[in-house]
Specification:
Blueprint lengths: L2 H44 L7 H9 L8 E4 L2 H17 L20 E9 L20 E10 L5 E4 L3 E4 L5 H12 L7 E8 L4 E6 L5 E4 L7 H7 L10 E7 L2 E6 L18 E6 L3 E6 L5 E4 L7 H7 L8 E10 L13 E5 L5 H8 L7 E6 L3 H24 L1
Parallel strand pairs: 1-15, 7-11, 12-16
Antiparallel strand pairs: 2-3, 2-6, 4-5, 7-8, 9-10, 9-11, 12-13, 14-15, 14-16
Helix pairs in contact: 1-8
Length: 404
């Protein structure tokens, strides 16, 4: 074979070999890209997340095997007004203290009371013996008093008085006891006059306990104190009125009402009666915030009414780097005053990309134990994976750059 022909055949063979290598490298590159794409897609599903996306929430509402059925509704002007009317209706059905009102006396003596009894006599005294006579006269016309040692009403409502014996005083007023003692002493003392006062009024007392600065037992005066008077006399609640529940017990019936809802002079500011029990409990109204926010948290209302706009602001608003502002969800179990659930749970959706939504959020009231969720943007997971890959490979890239 001529030398030129031999060189041409050898060149063709080397060229075909290099082309096969290039084709093989391209195939490997395509395979690597495909594998990397599969890893990316698979990694997005396994990366950690602080909650579902809007698509996942919609899918969860439509799932046939969902453990709890819920309904997603968009906030509209008509819906906001309907929920406000429902809030007012529920507020009117909340148990109030007014129905417990009753008339009762606070001047009657009862077991445990401590009485002070003074007997005034003229002339010959029964309790003090013969009084000294004035000069030229047979008797002293001035009145003299004798105070009987403190008398405590026993469990049977009885007391013991010298020259009278045991007498029942429970259920009587001090004036009625005075008259009864005077009748019992007639014929034994010359024109006796008795004065009875209650030194310790146990029977006409109320009891205040719980989250107060000075809990204890308080006597009811004839001026008839009210509920708020007793709380003020106890130093007031140690917590805010919005976070305080008043548990009022009268005649075996207990009703709870939030302290902030009780106004002076209203039916709920009950006139106190003997034996009333008042207990103050800390029970703040709260809502919780999850999702694409700076920090998941439980937030107190702290005021009488909190709007959805205020709730979002207190939570710091949607996270610009992670949130989907068109997917703000409020999860709510619509409850009745008796604790039962009215209908299926509702999930209210607010689209903050619409300017009108901010006006709706100002009118929509939050309720106790609402759950506010700000959905993650759908692009978050690929971005997270890319960041992870960059963190994994950046040391190698840096090392290669330094080695050059």
């Amino acid at each position: 074979m001529p030398a030129d022909t031999f060189r041409l055949v050898a060149f063709n063979a080397r060229f075909r070999g290099k082309m096969n290598i290039l084709r093989s490298s391209a195939s490997k590159r395509r395979a690597c890209i495909g594998a990397l794409t599969s890893v990316l897609l698979g990694g997005c599903a396994t990366l950690p997340s602080n909650g579902p996306t809007a698509h996942q929430i919609r899918k969860g509402a439509q799932a046939a095997d969902a453990g709890i059925r819920f309904e997603i509704v968009d906030l509209t002007p008509d819906l906001v007004e309907a929920t406000r009317r429902q809030d007012e209706e529920l507020s009117s059905k909340v148990p109030a203290l007014g129905p417990l009102a009753r008339n009762s006396r606070v001047d009657q003596i009862g077991p445990g009371d401590v009485l002070s009894i003074s007997v005034y006599e003229v002339g010959v005294a029964l309790f003090s013996g013969s009084l000294p006579a004035a000069a030229g006269e047979g008797f002293d016309p001035s009145a003299h008093a004798q105070t009987i040692p403190v008398a405590t009403v026993d469990s049977d409502g009885m007391i013991t008085i010298p020259f009278v014996g045991r007498m029942k005083v429970a259920g009587l007023t001090p004036a009625q006891v005075e008259e009864a003692i005077n009748r019992a002493l007639r014929g034994k003392s010359q024109n006796p006059q008795t004065v009875v006062t209650i030194r310790q009024n146990v029977a006409n007392s109320i009891y205040v306990s719980g989250e107060l600065r000075r809990p204890g037992r308080f006597e009811i005066s004839p001026s008839r104190e009210h509920l708020l008077d007793a709380i003020a006399a106890s130093g007031g609640s140690v917590n805010s009125a919005e976070d305080t529940i008043v548990r009022f017990t009268r005649d075996g019936t207990t009703v709870e009402e939030r302290l902030a809802f009780i106004r002076a002079g209203t039916a709920d500011d009950l006139m106190l009666a003997p034996g009333d029990h008042i207990e103050l409990l800390k029970r703040p109204r709260t809502y919780t915030v999850f999702g694409a926010v700076q920090k998941a948290s439980q937030v107190n209302f702290e005021t009488g009414e909190v709007s959805l706009a205020e709730a979002l602001a207190r939570a710091g608003g949607p996270n610009d780097a992670a949130a989907d502002p068109s997917a703000i969800y409020l999860f709510r179990l619509d409850g009745l005053p008796d604790g039962s659930i009215a209908g299926p749970p509702k999930v209210y959706r607010l689209n903050m990309l619409k300017p009108s939504s901010y006006l709706l959020a100002q009118r929509f009231r939050m309720r106790d134990k609402d759950v506010l969720y700000i959905a993650n943007a759908a692009a978050n997971q690929p971005s997270k994976l890319i960041n992870v890959i960059n963190q994994l490979f950046s040391p190698f890239v840096t090392a290669r750059a330094l080695s050059r």
